Amino acid sequence: xxxxxxNRRGFLKLAAAGTCSSIIPTVTPGLLQCxxxxxxxSGKMLCVIELxxxxxxxxxxxTFGGQHHDNNxxxxxxxxxxxxxxxxxxxxxxxxxxxxxxxxxNGDGVIINGVGFPNHSRSHDVAQLSWKTGxxxxxxxxxxxxxxxxxxFPSAYSVISVSGNSDFxxxxxxxxxxxxxxxxxxxxTWRESSRDQFSKQxxxxxxxxxxxxxxxxxxxxxxxxxxxxxxAEQLETIRNTPLLDQNGATINFPNGxxxxxxxxxxxxxxxxxxxxxxxxxxQGGYDTHGDEGPRLQSLLTELDGAIGAFERACxxxxxxxxxxxxxxxxxxxxxxxxxANGNDHGMTMKYMMVGGGVNGTTGGRVIAPAPTxxxxxxxNLRGGRIYDVLHVDQRNIWEQALNHIAGGNAGLFSSQxxxxxxxxxxx
Length: 427
Hints:
Blueprint: H1 8-16, H2 20-27, E1 45-51, H3 57-60, H4 66-71, E2 85-86, E3 92-93, H5 98-105, E4 109-116, H6 124-133, H7 145-150, E5 159-161, E6 176-178, H8 196-209, H9 216-240, H10 257-269, H11 271-274, E7 278-283, H12 292-317, E8 323-328, E9 349-354, E10 365-367, E11 392-393, H13 394-406
Parallel strand pairs: 1-7, 1-8, 4-10, 4-11, 5-6, 5-7
Antiparallel strand pairs: 2-3, 4-9, 8-9
Helix pairs in contact: 8-9, 10-12
């Protein structure tokens, strides 16, 4: 069936009726939706970093007790290593995570232990779809959490992925999309290829109205055109302008994840025009079935360097106090290493959150108990290797995070039953 089209005369009639906003999602997603972009919701911003492949948070945030080290000799950083980064008497962080550790200890971060779902899947696909959709049953047919929330925001770039297509942004709402970084966005982006002819007509129509100002409807259209032009110019500006820290020094972002977080910082800086409230980025490589020690060192060095540069940029832009970074994965890994000096697919994990918008505590805030020595004994692990103690349902974290961004109850989990203990995660 051919899509219903709107010609120039039809567009004028719709404008005169004051119904431009009703045709925006189906006609001119770039030109007009960005024209209507507002800092909707709470005005807060969420950067989601996925550690793709199933990150071993047991070795990223180990316990001080000897049992964990006994289970992972040659893989985990030992508690007597002089470079470890202590959090409290129970847990410490991998030496590569200096920026994340500093934020947590300064009160701009939180660690959450024992995060997962009931009967947490150890399949990459199932576990990823479960957290990205927030649906444990019908995840194959559910829109992504980011996509569903984007329906409540007016901008075409309310929720973005800078790491290509992702189930987190995939779905039926047009206000969530993969942008593949700012390098892919130019003025031509405002016209999608399948709608070029109408987009040109709409642009010509808007221009023809620019000097008339006959009534409020045409004034709305004229203002929308101006906002679209402003948004396009802002994109050109932020795409080519270096990001500076609070002292005016240019920030050099590391390659890989760093370049993606650089683009997110730029999107966030232009939220008043582009309307971006949530941005998703992925760092792959965490499926560490073998040689985990050196691989984790490299991955975490990249992660921490990217977050450090992102923090400096957000502080330089004056937006750090409104930003939360959530570092998540589909599952953790086994609490006991395998014969290849790696760890296989596990279940419950640890979340890390940093940012000026995070309600941390000076000296480090940790939510829920860390694994105990007894729980880490192979005799007490599922199958002798898997830690499966669930303290915090992932849906509870996501519900509170997305409500925080929406500025109220977003209603994305209203039909589900799970423990909704208030975690007081945000300022």
